[in-house]
Structures
1.
Amino acid sequence: MCKTNDEKGDSPKEGHEPTGEQAEFSALLEDSAEDLYEHAPCGYLSTLLDGRIAKVNATLLDWLGYEADDLVGGKHFSDLLTVGGRLYHETHFAPLLRMQGEISGIALEFKAADGSRLPVMVTSTVKTGGDGQPLLIRTTVFDARDRRAYETELLRARKAADEERDRLKRLAATLQKTLLPPTLANVPGLDVSAHYHIASVDEVGGDFYDLFPLAAGTWGLFLGDVCGKGAAAAAVTSLARYTLRAAAVYDSDPAAVLANLNTVLNHEYNGTDPRFCTVIFGLLTPDTDRGGFHITLASGGHPPALLMRADGTADFLHTPGGQLIGVLPDAQIATTTVHLAPGDTLLLHTDGLTEAHTADGGEDDRYGDDALLDFGRALAPTTASDTIGAVRDLLDTLGTGVDDDTAVLAIHVPPTHQ
């Protein structure tokens, strides 16, 4: 004998009525499709193929401030758009929709009943019949006001960041100019040229140079490189530059000048943020007996100067043993003396040149001292301006490989027959 459902235990038993949570969940599932359409969190509208509005949900009507009778049967989809939106609809939106049958994620602006604008994201799909022929167009509209506000804020923040970056670049450029001499001293019987190559416009570099008169018939020159970049390096650069000039007036002996600078830097920056620099200082005096100039160079850990002779030879003026300026209370200063004869050219440089990366990209891809020496030998004999011009061309060739500021200073004794 077959049992009924009740006998099989399929019907609910007494005392097993649905809980309140289950009843609430069941009630949610009983929402009508019409209610879901009308009060969806996005706008819906259906249009005929010519764009005339056939149906629109309550959500979109509320957004735009219209009644259904204001739009259905009398307005076209394009009537809801701004002038620019209508142009885009006719030239791009509608043609693409006809070709593809669907188009999504299009940013447009609707005109509300009160004349305000509503930024929206639109997706449209062509509904076809059983025979494949298009019947109408269904469009989903998403409120993009929050997104537009977010994008506007991003653009505003980006513009502010760009303006701040430009301001800092101008500030860095202005500060950099104050750390370099506006003009170099005019030394009778000597041609002088200099160049400062900025590796990054965003930060102030620490390279510096100068050429200035001292007692009658003598001139001082220096070129140096402070460790680091930015405002801290600029402060050290300024202190070093003015200390060197003041020290040279007090005692023009190159070794004494650098010893004075070492004392100042070591005293000012011997705490948790030590600062130091490499410097080469020279004392120039005319050589009345042989012609040309007599120069004494003192170096505190700086790359050697390059001497290019009138006879076409070239070599470094080494000052071994010179220590960094500002690190130790009593730094060792190395000196050398040389005669600059007519036709000779002396090039002082910072290590931004020799430490530049070449296009080789290998483990040892630095430009290096050997390459600079070959450069000088190929250039000699030369003049100050030609030397600086050749260095500038070289820096341009190295391009982004020059990742540190580079200062170069060239002095040339013109031949006597000129």
2.
Amino acid sequence: MRAAVLHEIGQDKLEVLDDVEAVGFGPGKVRIRIRATGLCHSDVSAMSGVLPQPAPFVPGHEGAGEILDVGDGVTGLSVGQRVLLCWLPACGACPACKRGQTQLCLAGFMNAGTPNFRRSGGASAAASANASADVFGFAGTGTFAEEVVVDAGCAVPIPDDVPFDIAALIGCGVTTGLGAAINTAQVEAGSSVAVIGCGGVGISAIQGARLQGAAQIVAVDPVGSRREAALRFGATEAVAPDALADAKQRITGGEGFDYVFEVVGKSATARTAYETTRRGGTLCVVGAGALDDFLQLNMFELFFDEKRILPSMYGGGDVLRSYERTIALWRAGRIDLASLITHRVPLAGINDALEQMRTGAALRTCIEI
């Protein structure tokens, strides 16, 4: 089958190979035919080494498709069923799950250390200097492939009226952004909000803040097209980063915003977000950053400002409930998911999708497989 593979961490392009097979099928597993997958910034971060991931690997973790086969012991799933992929399934038994913080379950991360794929050793593999038999899947999935084998808990059934491309977005970016505003920050009606970083996740945070009744929502992004998009999705104002200080002064009288969402994953923007948050306000950190990128705060400001710093992992709540809520809001026309998909490419055009993300041209690119 075909899959897009990164041979070494640090490479900026993927190679689409036709000699890859999904491995590991057996009890407790399902085999899924991927129909649509989104390109998330976390995929790019894993390629560059910002997020830890063994290589070679198949990126992609935001996908949807149909079940091809069901292993022994799997209940509630059947061949032909439409599913989205949950890259962080809850085990239900660990301390985090028992506390109701299923988004903090570590069981899913353990899958990242086991190869999901294997190259068959055909002619193309033998000819490649980068050929390696075992291939990992990013975040234990690897949806930039025609098929994947995953734990049954990763396969979440979706209703027939939810298209594969919409379901794929719900599998990560939309759930993360909406959940940050609704679950983690719990934005209050009438409040002021700033969102720094307006890709697919940031736009979803904007939609979440709008749903919660925020009075002012300022979108902050260096890319003009993303600022324009943010206004269509519910932002009341959109500014470039160098105009954020002026917006803070005009809108809040210099006090700072009630809620600021950092959706970039860098200490520099997190520091800006902290300084843009009012005393007693909430900074919500949504962006996934590097292990060696440190945010510096002095102990006096930490005490004196009494600002709440709330990281948000995968939307900060039970993801299965979040999926259901998102589908209900989408059906009711309360959120716009279709317009998040600004570009579509086949798997063969995956490097075009990477360029669209790196330049900021795309909110979300759907890879149709």
3.
Amino acid sequence: MAIFGFITGYLIPFILVLSLLVFVHEMGHYLVGRWSGIRVTAFSIGFGPELIGFNDKHGTRWKISAIPLGGYVKFWGDEDASSRPDFDGLGHLTEAERAQTLGGAKLWKRAATVAAGPIANFLLAIVIFAVLFGVYGRSVSDPVVSEVRADSAAAAAGILPGDRLVALDGSAIKTFDDVRRYVSIRPETLVTVTIERNGQRQDIPLVPKRTELTDQFGNKVEMGLIGVVTNEQSGNFRRVQYTPIEAVKEGVIETGQIISGTFRYIGNLVTGRMKADQLGGPVRVAQASGQMATLGIAAVIQLAAVLSVSIGLLNLMPVPVLDGGHLVFYAIEAIRGKPLGAGAQEIAFRIGLAMVLSLMVFATWNDISNLIG
């Protein structure tokens, strides 16, 4: 029964969510590649042995493969699923045939085709958030303090109940959630809080404390806190509804905040302000998918939007075998006026593959350690 519960509660939601995001990502590559005149030989959801598939009239093999941890589009002239050029094979093609391969297409077409995958993920996130905001609106509250927790950064800095927080590091804030979002990714980092008290504004410097919390599912989450609370009376709790245009705007803003927050989080890892065990791999994503499924379809859809942004950013990392690595190669080619040699690219792809596999092993080990611990 435990295994059945894991499959239905965690594994199936995870596979469904991930497969959707992978499909959108690869469809971005596929559509722009086809538009650029590049032939596509395979479109796969998953890796490894094929489970089911069919050929379309253009010669593309559409398939679902056994390992549901990604996917790929294989273009004509690629040596493998990482879009590594088959240098030997390309040398035997005519000029017209080379133009139909990814490696032989014009530089701007290659760059557009590669970048289209992550861009598709970002666009999907914007659409999802826009739909959620358009349908459900958003619960907001004013950034007015009703309580200051003892021994907190806010208490030490002199913030008082009744203060309205109007800006953080000079950037205006509108809701209490803006405060939480901003300080949560800035533990142990100096933040200047602008408050309004009795009609007068003043700047108060403080440092959010790095704090480990437990969420409603029992997961440990590390973030920065300043120790202020609002309530229904002070915060004027309400639900804001958006027009379609406003919903799209909010979707763009939300996606941008996730992107900037991700970069800030990576910076925190590098500087040691957050621990690396917060990194999540496939196991944690599966766990989160199952947990969100218990909260309803809206929660699952919102998680899909966040993961879509994460997939887009991950693929833009400047690592060979990822989209970002290909874009780095293309940038070097644009500067040099010619591509890197086959030998240099082969070495880079091997290093990139080792880096990706190492990161996956590390993240999965973190997941398992956190579950056991």
